[in-house]
Structure formats: structure tokens, C-alpha cells
Specification:
Layout (H helix, E strand, L loop, with lengths): L360 H14 L3 H28 L1
Helix pairs in contact: 1-2
């Protein structure tokens, strides 16, 4: 009484107790529950605050993001704005060697283009492009250097007669004395045909029967060259000049390619669906020339194995299942009570298929009437018995016919 225990009904609550964070209880009677464990001034998210890590005072909303793999400012992104963050999304950060993390086209291993930027981050700009001065003579291809691999050849350089080189890049080799076709190369410089301006080292090879680039090969890389050595070029009809087994008149094989270059794949082979029914010989089509014959189709009465199960017209020869087919003399193969060999019934049908209907039924009726007439008073009972037999027989026949139709 008169002490400072804020809840004297709970033994664990008193001024000397250890405060338990986030439990909603003022354990040490200091007036509040512990909701800011790291003391950074921001309550933890678990109690409705915005501190994403209440064990680290350096982590809180508004903190400076560092290159440490931690979301210091609790915004859901780690290391943004630091050398550890891939700002341009090219897969490489500054710390990983990206020399321009604001440009997704610049990163180690990028492709260099003539744009004044170091795309591959190797410290050199535009190397290997027309903007780069490869030979260090102060001129690039864009600047007019006609041979950027020769430091002595550039615009304004002194022309040296007799060396087969256009030293001053004016388009004339040795002032035209040794380059009759004016293609920029003399015989000494490797021109294999000094009378043809389209033939010189480095020229574009054309399908013209000439060694345009003076490399000793004729028409290589063009449609006039037989790349696979099968005796035919693309111009000659070879539809795949990288494969010597593919050419017109080749034998078509079951291999998923057009071996004979006729525009069809595997035609005539077991792998091709020749009749277009969706199945090939390999897939089980027993007649790939007939689109109506394939596994799964309905069997028809046509002396053909329509469903490719090895049986012909199965299940359709004896339609009513009475054991006799139409070919065997069943005159109504839709009625199981009609076939040769069955007994004739008095039902208005030719049950025996002999061409006569209800033969013998008139004699039975006549005999029954005679019996009734001779029996006097007993005729009523006899007539009743006879009529009952006929009624029963009619009911039996009607029942059988209904089952047959069903």
C-alpha cells in the first residue's frame, strides 16, 4: 500500500521486472510496453509501427541505404542507389564492373557499337567499329581511312609508287599506274584479276563464277556454291546445301526432313500420313491410301478392315445376333425371331424365311373350332382353354418381337 507496483494482482508485474517487448503489458511499471527494442525512435511493424528490423537501430524508415545487402530504409528494396544495386537491370552492378549502370546496353561483355559509348566496359570506346582508329594513324573508317589496319595509309598520306597500296586513300593505287581496273588493288597487293574492278581481295563474293575476293574459291557463300559437296547448289535445286544427303532425286527416308527437295517430308514412308486422316503407317494406319480406314473408326459392311484391328466387317454381318447373317439366308437381319431354321409362329411374319407367312396356323385354328363344337356344354371351357392358349402364344410372340426390336 502506497508502493509503486502498477498491477499488484500479477506477480510478474512490478518496477524491477524485465520488460517483455510487444506483449502489450507494462511489465516494469514504467508506463508503457516495450515496442521500440533498438531504440531508434520507430516502433516495430509487429505492433503497427514501420520499423522492418527492430533489432538494428540503423534500419528504419528514412535511414540511408548502404551497400550491405540489407533494406536499411524499410522500403522493400535493398541497396538501391548504391554500387550493389543494378539500376539499369542489365544484370551487372557497379561493383560487378558495370561502367554505366544507367544504360542497360553497357556492361562487361556487351557488344560495342559506333556510338561513342564503352558498351563492353573495357575502357576503350567503339573498338572494332568504323568509328575507332584501329591503326592509330588519327583516322577511322568514318574519317576516310581506307585501310585502318595500316598506319601508313590514311587520307593525306604520301602515295608511294609501286607498292600496290592506295596510301593516300584517294581511290587510286600508285596513281593508277599499277591498278588498271581501278579497284584499289594491284597485282602486287593481291588482285587476282587486274582487268575486273569487281575482283580484288576482300570484295563481296557473288554467284557469278568468279573468285571475287581472290581467296582461291569461286562463289563460296552464295547460292551458286556447292557447300555440302553433293554435286548440286541452292541455285541448282539443293534445298539444304549443308547436308550432302539432301538433294533432288535423293531417296526419301523416314527421318522428318525433305530428303528429295520436293517440298514434302517423308512422303511414301511409314512416317508420313499419306491419306491425311491423321495417322501414318507407323501410327497404325493399315491403309494409308484411304482416309476412311484408320484405327478407331467405325466398321462398315464393305469387306474392308475399316478400324485396322485385323478383322473385316466384324459385328455387322449378323445385325440381330440370331446366329444367321443375311448372306446365310436371314431375310430380316433386324429381327432375331426371323431366320431359316426357326419354327414358324402365328404372328403375321415369315419367321422361317421360306416365302410363306404363318403356314400351318389355319389348320390349328380349324381343329380348335371342331373340338369346341363337339364338346357341347364343355365347349365353353374348351373354347376358353383354346382361346387362352392363343392369347398366351400371342403375348409370347409380341414380347419376343418387342425384345428383338429393342
Amino acid at each position: 500500500c502506497g508502493g509503486d507496483d502498477c498491477d499488484d494482482s500479477v506477480r510478474a508485474v512490478h518496477p524491477d521486472a524485465t520488460e517483455v517487448a510487444y506483449d502489450g503489458i507494462d511489465n516494469d511499471c514504467d508506463g508503457a510496453d516495450l515496442t521500440d527494442v533498438d531504440g531508434d525512435g520507430v516502433d516495430a511493424r509487429v505492433v503497427g509501427g514501420s520499423d522492418c528490423d527492430d533489432s538494428d537501430a540503423g534500419v528504419r524508415p528514412g535511414a540511408t541505404e548502404g551497400a550491405d545487402g540489407v533494406d536499411d530504409d524499410c522500403d522493400g528494396t535493398m541497396d538501391e542507389g548504391t554500387d550493389w544495386y543494378d539500376d539499369d537491370g542489365d544484370g551487372v552492378t557497379e561493383s560487378g564492373g558495370d561502367c554505366d549502370d544507367a544504360d542497360a546496353t553497357s556492361f562487361p561483355g556487351g557488344s560495342e557499337t559506333p556510338d561513342g559509348a564503352d558498351e563492353d566496359c573495357d575502357g576503350t570506346t567503339d573498338e572494332g567499329t568504323a568509328l575507332y582508329d584501329d591503326d592509330g594513324d588519327g583516322y577511322s573508317e568514318v574519317d576516310g581511312d581506307c585501310n585502318d589496319g595500316d598506319v601508313f595509309a590514311s587520307p593525306g598520306a604520301a602515295e608511294m609508287d609501286g607498292n600496290g597500296i592506295d596510301d593516300d586513300c584517294d581511290g587510286v593505287v600508285d596513281d593508277g599506274v599499277f591498278d588498271p581496273d581501278a579497284d584499289g588493288y594491284t597485282d602486287d597487293a593481291g588482285d587476282c584479276d587486274s582487268g575486273n574492278g569487281a575482283v580484288y581481295p576482300g570484295a563481296l563474293e557473288l554467284p557469278d563464277g568468279l573468285d571475287n575476293d581472290c581467296d582461291g574459291l569461286v562463289d563460296e557463300g552464295t547460292t551458286a556454291y556447292d557447300d555440302d559437296g553433293d554435286g548440286l547448289t541452292e541455285a541448282g535445286g539443293d534445298c539444304d546445301d549443308t547436308d550432302a544427303g539432301v538433294l533432288p532425286d535423293a531417296t526419301e527416308a523416314s527421318n522428318g526432313r525433305d530428303d528429295d527437295c520436293d517440298g514434302l517430308v517423308d512422303e511414301g514412308s511409314d512416317a508420313r500420313d499419306d491419306d491425311g486422316d491423321g495417322l501414318s503407317d507407323e501410327a497404325g494406319d493399315c491403309d494409308d491410301t484411304n482416309a476412311d480406314v484408320r484405327p478407331g473408326t467405325d466398321e462398315a459392311d464393305n469387306d474392308v478392315d475399316d478400324d485396322c484391328d485385323g478383322l473385316v466387317d466384324e459385328g455387322i454381318d449378323d445385325l440381330d445376333g440370331d446366329g444367321v447373317t443375311a448372306a446365310d439366308g436371314d431375310c430380316d437381319d433386324a429381327n432375331g425371331w426371323v431366320n431359316p431354321g426357326i419354327e414358324e409362329m402365328c404372328d403375321g411374319i415369315d419367321n422361317t424365311c421360306d416365302g410363306e407367312i404363318d403356314e400351318g396356323c389355319e389348320e390349328v385354328e380349324s381343329d380348335e373350332k371342331a373340338d369346341v363344337a363337339e364338346c357341347g356344354c364343355g365347349a365353353t371351357e374348351a373354347a376358353s382353354g383354346g382361346a387362352g392358349w392363343l392369347v398366351a402364344l400371342g403375348a409370347l410372340v409380341a414380347s419376343r418381337r418387342r425384345r428383338s426390336r429393342a
